[in-house]
């Protein structure tokens, strides 16, 4: 059975988001993968040492900075490395990560000005996973993730 690395906020259970709220994914496919034990939940931000709740943060080029001006790049990098280690250890076929996050955004992130505007880009963890050859999808790309999983299991059951 192929494993899938997934953002903890999508997995559900304990709150991990900066605002302490849940973004639990309710798509039937996702829930089936969860029930099958395929999902490996990770929160790079918490694993990197940040608390819940915490000030919101956005990526500003190669740095991650909170709304209050604190540079939290080190924590984000530490968490990204731990998430990568989990993916490798568990043999994750790919990842499904929370869009717009400065850690997990896979196609879109906030623009770094805290104005609510988004730009094309990726979070620190999504970038590291891709650099190491791990395919990354967002929760908005479950059709593509499902197809990728089917192909992966056909090629190497």
Describe the overall structure:
Strand 6 and strand 7 form a beta hairpin. With 157 residues, the protein is of the alpha/beta class. It contains six helices and eight strands. The protein starts with a strand and ends with a helix. The chain has helices at residues 8-11, 28-35, 44-47, 73-90, 124-131, 142-155; strands at residues 3-7, 39-42, 57-60, 63-66, 92-97, 108-110, 118-120, 135-138. This is DUF523 domain-containing protein.
Brief description of this entry?
This protein has 157 residues and is α/β, with parallel strands linked by helices. The protein has helices at 8-11, 28-35, 44-47, 73-90, 124-131, 142-155; strands at 3-7, 39-42, 57-60, 63-66, 92-97, 108-110, 118-120, 135-138. The longest helix is centred in the middle third of the chain and has 18 residues, at 73-90.
Summary keywords:
2-thiour_desulf; alpha/beta; 157 residues; globular; four-stranded parallel beta sheet; 6 helices; DUF523 domain-containing protein; 8 strands
| Number of strand segments | 8
Largest sheet: 4 strands, parallel
Write down the Rg: 15 Å
User: From the helix content, strand content and strand pairing, which structural class follows?
Assistant: alpha/beta
Q: Helicity level, as a percent range?
A: 25-40%
Strand content: 15-25%
* Topology as a string of helices (H) and strands (E): EHHEHEEHEEEHEH
User: Mean of the pLDDT scores?
Assistant: 96
C-alpha geometry: globular
Total of DSSP H or I helical runs spanning 4+ residues: 6
**Spatial strand arrangement across the major sheet:** 2-1-5-8
For the termini, the CA-CA separation is: 7 Å
List low-pLDDT spans: none
């Amino acid at each position: 059975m192929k494993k899938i690395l997934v953002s903890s906020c999508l997995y559900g259970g304990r709150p991990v988001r900066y605002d302490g709220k849940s973004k639990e994914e309710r798509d039937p496919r996702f829930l089936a993968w969860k029930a099958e034990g395929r999902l490996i939940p990770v929160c790079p931000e918490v694993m990197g040492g940040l608390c819940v709740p915490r000030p919101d943060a956005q990526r500003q080029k190669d740095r991650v900075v909170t709304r209050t001006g604190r540079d939290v790049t080190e924590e984000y990098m530490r968490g990204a490395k731990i998430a990568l280690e989990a993916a490798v250890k568990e043999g994750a076929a790919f990842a499904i990560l929370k869009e717009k996050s400065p850690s997990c955004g896979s196609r879109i992130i906030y623009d770094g000005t805290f104005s609510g505007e988004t730009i094309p880009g990726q979070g620190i963890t999504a970038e590291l996973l891709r650099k190491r050859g791990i395919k990354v999808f967002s929760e908005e790309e479950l059709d593509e993730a499902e197809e990728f999983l089917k192909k992966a299991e056909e090629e190497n059951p």
